[in-house]
Design brief:
CATH topology: Endonuclease III, domain 1
Oligomer: single chain
Largest sheet: 2 strands, parallel
Helix content: 40-55%
Radius of gyration: 17 Å
Number of helices: 11
Shape: globular
CATH class: Mainly Alpha
């Protein structure tokens, strides 16, 4: 029997867990998508956002930051009437704000990927949690990245949102050690060691 992280209990969650969650990601468009979706999740369940993911891709032009950055008031009002996404004005407006900040950040770092992965020297943090209760909601790493993103003008980038984002895009491998995906993602040949940025279980 395949063992998975306990949160991956529904078909959409299982598919996402098995193919995406925790896989090191270096595609700027997909990184922008995950950053926006994690912000949209605030106060909601991830399964709710996964169920609306295709609608989000349709509504936000495939998460092309250059297109989203040009959205004006009329487009935002149309999005407020779109039942396929979370109709929260602050979250929708922050998506446009974040697209602009995303493009500005790339002027400095060339890619968002380069900005993000510099915090871990280009190598994922592999934690070794045995139970879901050990997995933290924040870390010193998510604190640093969230504050730096806020300094660059991003919204909805608190430490909790950013930690979930880091888990999603593989900067942090938080699959439980009993999960079949943990060993697939951890470095081959030797047990993974915790790197700076993880925090002790609370």
């Amino acid at each position: 029997m395949i063992k998975r992280c306990p949160w991956a209990s529904k078909p959409l969650e299982t598919a996402y867990h098995d193919s995406e969650w925790g896989v090191p990601l270096h595609d700027d468009r997909l990184l922008f998508e995950l950053l926006i979706l994690e912000g949209a999740q605030a106060g909601l369940s991830w399964s709710t956002i996964l169920a609306k993911r295709d609608n989000y891709r349709r509504a936000f032009d495939g998460f092309d930051p250059e297109k989203v950055a040009r959205y004006g008031r009329a487009r935002i009002e149309r999005l407020m009437g779109d039942a396929g996404i979370v109709r929260n004005r602050l979250k929708i407006e922050s998506t446009v704000t974040n697209a602009k900040a995303f493009l500005a950040l790339r002027e400095t770092y060339d890619t968002f990927d380069r900005f993000l992965w510099q915090f871990v020297d280009g190598k994922p943090v592999h934690n070794r949690w045995r139970s879901a209760s050990q997995v933290p909601a924040v870390s010193p790493l998510s604190d640093r990245i969230g504050k730096d993103l806020a300094r660059h003008g991003f919204k909805f980038v608190g430490s909790t949102i950013i930690y979930a984002f880091l888990q999603a895009c593989g900067v942090v491998n938080d699959h439980l050690t009993s999960c079949f995906r943990y060993t697939q993602l951890a470095p081959p040949g030797k047990p993974a060691k915790k790197r700076s940025g993880a925090v002790a279980p609370r």
